[in-house]
Design goal:
By secondary structure, the protein is α/β, with parallel strands linked by helices. It is built from 5 helices and 8 strands, in the order E-E-E-H-E-H-E-H-E-E-H-E-H. The protein has helices spanning 54-65, 89-105, 118-128, 169-178, 199-214; strands spanning 9-17, 20-28, 36-41, 69-73, 110-116, 132-138, 156-161, 185-188. It has an 8-stranded mixed β-sheet, sandwiched between helices. The longest helix is centred in the middle third of the chain and has 17 residues, at 89-105.
Length: 220
């Protein structure tokens, strides 16, 4: 993975993790700012979710357009990644491992996390256990997983479709409103769980959030 960090493009990789190999893709934009690395999480491993999901690929493109490298990877038991589904626990361990690899080579790096559906829980766990500078969760299944397990990560944003047939939108809105401090939510009208026909607005929302954070003095 790290041997391609200075080469713009999409770089598939397989590296050894704690329970075997991890399959992923490193996306490096031209003139990438290596102070930052974004770690991306995909939908549920047992329901066909992979790192090539269109929402996850859209996330990678958004970070690329803002000059930030990203790593998306198959969770345990998916594709060529070893292991078995671990309800977000082992998956977040792997996410933090990949982040640590980047930071070993780039000591001043700052961690950004994003995830879609189940992958948002993985990203939440990783962000909460690290010095995360940004967390973006798309359609987080707050009715299935404990997003209160750790202290609330800083700079957490939620993106949610109002016609989501998998994650009840009102449950997400209530969760965000009950958080301390309340979490900002961008709602997408007439949008289902997989953001069919809404990937461009989703990407635009990501870019706006990322750029606003990069303008913040404590991220410089």
């Amino acid at each position: 993975m790290l041997d391609k960090q200075n080469e713009a493009g999409e770089h598939p990789f397989i590296i050894q993790g704690s329970v075997g190999q991890i399959e992923g893709v490193l996306t490096v934009p031209p003139n990438t700012d290596k102070r930052y690395i974004a770690l991306l999480g995909h939908p549920h491993s047992l329901q066909g979710g992979t790192m090539n999901n269109k929402v996850v690929s859209t996330m990678a493109r958004a970070f690329k357009d803002t000059g930030i490298a990203s790593v998306r990877f198959n969770f345990r038991g998916v594709g060529a990644t070893a292991g078995t589904y671990d309800a977000g626990v082992g998956e977040s361990v792997d996410m933090l491992y990949l982040a640590d690899l980047w930071c070993q080579s780039n000591p001043d790096c700052q961690l950004l996390f994003a995830g879609f559906s189940f992958g948002s829980y993985v990203a939440y766990r990783a962000a909460a256990q690290s010095a995360s500078k940004l967390l973006i969760t798309v359609a987080p299944p707050v009715h299935h997983y404990d997003y209160r397990l750790y202290q609330q990560p800083a700079h957490w944003h939620i993106l949610q479709g109002d016609a989501d047939d998998v994650v009840p939108a009102q449950r997400v809105l209530d969760f965000a409103a009950d958080s301390v401090p309340p979490l900002p939510v961008i709602q997408f009208a007439q949008t289902g769980h997989f953001f069919h026909g809404k990937l461009l607005p989703l990407k635009a929302a990501f870019i706006e959030i990322i750029e606003n954070r990069l303008k913040n003095d404590d991220l410089k």
